[in-house]
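Researcher: Last one for today. Full complex below.
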Amino acid sequence: MHSFARNRRRFSSTPISQHNHLDPPKPGEERHVTFITKEGESFTFEVADGDNLLDIAQENDLEMEGACGGSCACSTCHVIVESEDMYNKMEEPDDDENDMLDLAFGLQETSRLGCQVKMSKELDGLVVRLPSMTRNLQASDFESK
Amino acid sequence: MPVHHARRAPYVCASCIRRLHHVAPRITRTYATSGPKTAISAAAERSPRPSLRAPARAVHLRRNEYSTSTRKPLRLAIIGSGPAGFYTAQRLMRQVKDAVVDMYEKLPVPYGLVRFGVAPDHPEVKNCQDSFEEVAASTRFNYIGNVEVGKTLALADMKPHYDAILFAYGASEDRKLSIPGEDLPGVYSAREFVGWYNGHPQFSHLKPELDKGERAVIVGQGNVALDVARILVAPLNQLRKTDIAEHAVAALSRSKIKRVEVVGRRGPLQASFTVKEVRELMQFPKVGFKSTGLRSFYPPEGIHTLPRVQKRLAMVLQQGAPIDKHDHKKRWELSFLRSPHAIHAKKNRLNQVIGNRVDSIEFQKTNFVPDANPFSEDAKVHPTGEMVTTEASMVFRSIGYKSTPLPGLSDLGVPFDEKLGIIPNDVHGRIISPSAGPGNLSAGHLPGLYAVGWVKRGPTGVIVNTMMDAFTTADIIAQDWSTNVPFLNTEKGSDASTGLGWDGVKDTVLAQGVIPVDWEAWKRIDKAERERGKQVGKVRWKFADTEQMKAAAGLASSWNPQKMKATAGLA
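Model: Here's the assembly. Have a good evening.
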């Protein structure tokens, strides 16, 4: 079953000891990523190649839930890439990611799941926005159900 | 723009503390933000949580010694331990730094539909339990399992001891078809079938008759319907390693079901299942797919003209299952524009009933109403009068869940909207009642009473919907608390609550011989389930019986009310 293969953390009884620490970037290979929060504040972090946006956000106390633990089975780590050029540099989202993006709040053309975007040399300087949820919650969740 | 380095020294893993500390959204100034977490305070918050005790009491006594103007900590009762309740607790405890939450659950075990609703072959969806465990690890959180509010414990008896009560008890019933023959043997609600294969104690004795024939018909086209279809056609060797109930594995191994028809009143563009669930059903080896006339439901200009979500779903349906038509062992089908009319037992040629269980289901064909846009999600249909009968050895109704009023709601003045199946609320989560409005003309907020999850907004949505809904409710409770609006026991502007929470009501519970399950006891059940699962090659082998759960928790011998009192007193 395809969903099993990508599952990294499942049924953990010891969440506090079982997470992935991000390793610091090697000298000369520092990548920069900026998150813009719902409140409009920007935070820029220096990270290593291969780090995904969900891990980076959580490691830095940004408000990103990641309900499924980064296994591409929910859309709680939805981010919007600010620049279309940067979005086009990324690998296309696969079917599984798009299936989850279909359920995301405030979906945009440059939406991605944070857990599926890994930092690389090409993505140095990436800027992503965390979607504002309250507005979308009311728009899509309470109308004509 | 300030550059923060990803590493801070001394380094404490942010994942350890992230859920305990967040920058609070600026709803009001009063409870906004604190500075970056230090290693010391993070460690303090991670201290092991004692059992069901009430630290709030000690805190509030100490506070009152110094200042009468300082408020007691917010004491909140959450009724229900599913994702709605847990996500609200998580957010609220971050927002209101001294809030103490007592979470009541009628079963010994927590997590609601994450444990009993999410399909066993979707284990990654259950990873949200990791977050819930971190919530439960807080000293400001008490889990009180095996205590049924409204039965063991009256809402009216809880009221004096809390500032707020949050209803998060979900939807405990399902919508009925209300057609003749619905009660025939062989007709099941998807809810009870899902509960059965997920090991819910209420449904573990269901014994669905999977071996009476080859054809199952599922009425309804949501994700629950597709979960049922998937369990019926999925290769058993994939399922048995999951936490699916062992009694379900045994029964499914004897299943004769070969064809599963999923029937809806409207068309594929109106179906509420999502693309992931459809895709999964297309990817099993030896499972075919059939749906006649699909193309007629799509715009003549082509499916690429549809909005994104509908378009992607249509593409998966059009593509179908990759296996050859004649190579499948099992097949699932989608049928549209059929409204259930009657369920029949077997009849002879003289039209006399000779069977005592389901044999067929009769549908009335429907059509889009003349002024409907058939490509719109909310297009309506009407009956055509033309009937069609489908052979069926099993029928599942899967047309939605339904919330019911908790006994004693009216004692608190809480209304219940039977038609919508929800507790009336202001969309944010404040419970409203016509009787609380000014001059009884408009609905007003009932102080200290809130709702979240399916009992608040109806039984729809996936985990992200429930999470965001819960965050909204938590934010609104925090906002109300910070702006000093009246709460549950506010009398003439002052707080008359005892602030005791669980300590104020536990004697009532214990006097009835009910043994509450605290978080440590649940962890013992959890451990036992994993260990016995390992022995049979499963991730978890759930106890499907409340007595087994309690035995695994070792409660009968270790629960000592006197000891508990002493612990609470020491706190």
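Confidence is low (pLDDT under 50) at residues 1-19, 134-145 of chain A. The first strand of chain A starts at residue 31 and ends at 36.
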